[in-house]
Write a structure and sequence with these properties.
This protein has a single domain (2-248), classed as TIM Barrel (Alpha-Beta Barrel), CATH 3.20.20. The chain is 41% helix and 22% strand. The protein contains ten helices and nine strands. An eight-stranded mixed β-barrel has the order 1-2-4-5-6-7-8-9, surrounded by six helices. α3 (63-78) runs parallel beside α5 (101-112) and α7 (176-183) crosses α8 (187-202). The radius of gyration is 18 Å and the shape is globular. Bound molecules: guanosine-5'-monophosphate (G) (2 copies), manganese (II) ion (MN) and sodium ion (NA). Sodium ion binds at residues 152-153, 173, 175, 210.
Length: 251
């Protein structure tokens, strides 16, 4: 594919960029973290959405060097923010099961000087479909370094809940389909968000509501007990310069 050919060159031609989307505390609405989201400005294809090129990268294993690049640059960027602000980095299943994954995290932390406690890795339930034990061991090792691990897009995968007994995730991210469904009055979505929040609380995990676009949605998820909120209402993915500028104000 043509996209694949261009993507192979993207790293060496320096075409990838990171954007950062704020995650706020549900009560104080202050920024507690930024999620790093990769962007690709291709001379041949224009601005390509990660929803389009990440799957290509995963199929071709290009996700490994791209993921390493994202990890290094996200950690370095986070050192420019106040100490209480974390960085969330998405990690694909294929990346997680590389033998040198843990080493690459250690390297990103040591090169940047970022405190491991300020790094939260985001994985989806799909990591528990294949190579379950390899994934679990890799995550245990990064947790032992002091990093946190969040479960992204929770409820949209096909995995069982058994793995929740084996790994102490710091955070469950409630997928935006449930958040927006609940806000539109779907009683099923409401019930699901409530159940996820209750489950997270009893497992001593935090919840982040994703895809919050309006004040009403923010109020709803706050009232349902979500700890943190992410979504266009509090900030779109932005450049690192804009992310830093937020701290010149009252955050
Ligand atoms: O930023 P946006 O909402 O367009 O992202 C679309 C998808 O791409 C999301 O599922 C997001 O998790 C994924 N994505 C964005 N950046 C990264 C990244 O650095 N690594 C991986 N593995 N996925 C990413
Ligand atoms: O899969 P993951 O949760 O990592 O994906 C993050 C994606 O969600 C990014 O592409 C980001 O642009 C998108 N996103 C973030 N906030 C919102 C929102 O409020 N509404 C919608 N529709 N998408 C959002
Ligand atoms: Mn994510
Ligand atoms: Na998500």
């Amino acid at each position: 594919r043509q996209l694949e050919f261009s993507l192979r060159k993207a790293l060496e031609r320096d075409e990838l960029m990171l954007n950062f989307q704020p995650v706020v505390d549900a009560k104080t609405e202050k920024v507690v973290s930024f999620e790093a989201l990769v962007r690709w400005h291709s001379p041949e294809h224009g601005l390509v959405s990660p929803a389009k090129f990440i799957p290509v990268a995963e199929d071709t294993r290009l996700i490994v060097p791209i993921g390493t690049w994202v990890m290094q640059n996200a950690c370095r960027e986070a050192t420019l923010w106040p100490d209480h602000v974390k960085v969330n980095v998405n990690v694909s299943p294929e990346q997680l099961v590389q033998p040198d994954f843990v080493e690459s995290v250690v390297e990103a932390l040591s090169h940047s000087g970022l405190d491991p406690h300020r790094l939260e890795i985001e994985v989806t339930e799909s990591i528990f479909l294949n190579d379950t034990e390899v994934a679990r061991v890799a995550l245990s090792k990064v947790m032992a370094l002091g990093c946190q691990v969040a479960l992204d897009d929770f409820g949209t995968g096909y995995s069982s809940l058994g793995y929740l007994r084996k790994l102490q995730f710091s955070t469950i991210k409630v997928d935006r389909s449930f958040v927006q469904g609940a806000a539109q009055g779907s009683s099923e979505s409401l019930a699901i968000v409530r159940a996820v929040v209750a489950m997270a609380q009893s497992l001593e995990m935090k919840t982040t509501a994703e895809g919050v676009e309006t004040e009403e949605e923010a109020k709803l998820v706050r009232d349902m007990g979500c700890d943190r909120i992410q979504g266009f209402h509090f900030g779109r993915p932005m450049t690192s310069v804009d992310a830093c500028a937020l701290f010149d104000r009252d955050y």
